[in-house]
Specification:
With 199 residues, this protein is of the alpha/beta class. The protein has a single domain, classed as Aldolase class I (TIM Barrel, Alpha-Beta Barrel), CATH 3.20.20.70. Helix content is 31%, strand content 21%. The protein is built from seven helices and ten strands. The strands form two sheets. An eight-stranded parallel barrel has the order 1-2-3-4-5-6-7-8. The protein has a two-stranded antiparallel ribbon with strand order 9-10. α2 packs across α3 and α3 packs parallel to α4 (86-93).
């Protein structure tokens, strides 16, 4: 089970996520309370080991902007979290793997499985709000065999329910925070403990 800790703004949070077993860390390069500069993302990323994937999160940036920021920040995977058309994803994928995020207000659309991405991420209607959504909304995409990452309101308490879907990965942010962009060591440890005890 791959786990991405997203909304990283501080080196100590990234290092703790790595120590606990995170597969990836996410840096928000779009307007957000958790936004970081490409330079800050690069500095934090350089302090991590080689087996932690550095992911850049973008919202409706055209491919040329995504590629420019990815290079400046020395990131490895691009997460498109807006309404990006497939053509933009195809352009970015010439250079980096792509995660495409979809915001749910009801059950997932099975046609999303055909979007040209390396993995699909399902988030709540308001990303970063900590609002969870009914996990059975993911079933239409799981039935399509999509490589699915669950996000949106994940925390140590509701993690067992999410794991019943056996997703490809998990994306956690607000559910392990003290405040936006500042992770709680207690909550982060509890999340990974819950993961281990439910696998």
């Amino acid at each position: 089970m791959v786990v991405k800790v997203c909304g990283i703004t501080r080196l100590e949070d990234a290092l703790l996520a790595e120590a606990l077993g995170a597969s990836a860390v996410g840096f928000v390069l779009a307007p957000s309370r958790r936004r970081v500069t490409p330079e800050a993302a690069r500095e934090i990323g350089l302090a991590l080991g080689p087996f932690v994937t550095r992911v850049g999160v973008f919202v409706n940036d055209p491919p040329e902007a995504v590629l420019r920021l990815m290079e400046r920040a020395r990131l490895q995977v691009a997460q498109l979290h807006g309404d990006e058309p497939p053509e933009w994803a195809l352009e970015v994928r010439k250079h980096y793997p792509v995660i495409k995020a979809f915001r749910l207000s009801g059950p997932a659309d099975p046609s999303w499985a055909h979007y040209p991405a390396d993995a699909l991420l399902l988030d709540g209607k308001t990303p970063g709000s900590g609002q969870a959504w009914p996990r059975d909304w993911a079933l239409p995409l799981l039935d399509q065999g999509a490589r699915l990452i669950l996000a949106g309101g994940l925390n140590p308490e509701n993690l067992p329910e999410a794991l019943t879907l056996n997703p490809y990965g998990l994306d956690v942010s607000s559910g392990v925070e003290e405040s936006p962009g500042k992770k709680s060591p207690v909550r982060l440890r509890a999340f990974f403990a819950a993961l281990q005890s439910n696998l």
